[in-house]
Design a protein that fits this description.
Radius of gyration: 33 Å
Order of helices and strands: EEEHHHHEEHHHEEH
Distance between the termini: 100 Å
Largest sheet: 4 strands, antiparallel
Oligomer: single chain
Amino acid sequence: MRDSDTMRSFSSNRTGQVLLQRDGCDASATELKQAALCGTPSKFRIARHIGLSVFIIAYFFCVSASTLPSEKLKRKLISPVFGIISGLGLVQNWKLFCPNVRRVNFHPAATISYADGLQELWQAPRFDRMNLLEHIANDKLRRFYIDSLSWPSHKEYWVDVCRAIARRHDDAVNPVTSVMLGYRWVPIPPPSEFAQRDKLPAHNRFFNSFFYCDRSEKEQ
């Protein structure tokens, strides 16, 4: 068929696929359909591209802001959206790579004192003694006990943790009078004294971080 603008004709290739001949250029029907779809982006596709771009920009902003050396500037940038960042697990902490790497092995512990003078040792879960599946299941607890609870930068947890320990071990006949929170530790052996994890020295030293007295609460 011939018109005033161009010649259009249909023919079949060896496999029986219909080809459209226009202006001397051959293209399959499938390719033309894809070209038509790509040439006119839908509203959904545009919205998806915009959403992905915003997410990528926001992600790199959060990561970059979390790694700033200035704590004041970091808090100023992150504080308005910290709840979202923390909920999505985007909080970045690079203390592991700082020059002052920890030189001790430790775990949180507390000494519980009772009214009759008896003392009991409370210890946080020992992640170094867990198998792989237990370690994976309790990783969030590890971050709380190891990376937060033992250090003064997170001392806002100390009172509540001591109260929880006291209430869990309280006895109507022999009530808890005080809780001394801290951690048990031992220096990390030098490389020349390498040992497997289950054969490392025991945490036989105690550092006291906080002393909680339960008397005032009982009097109320």
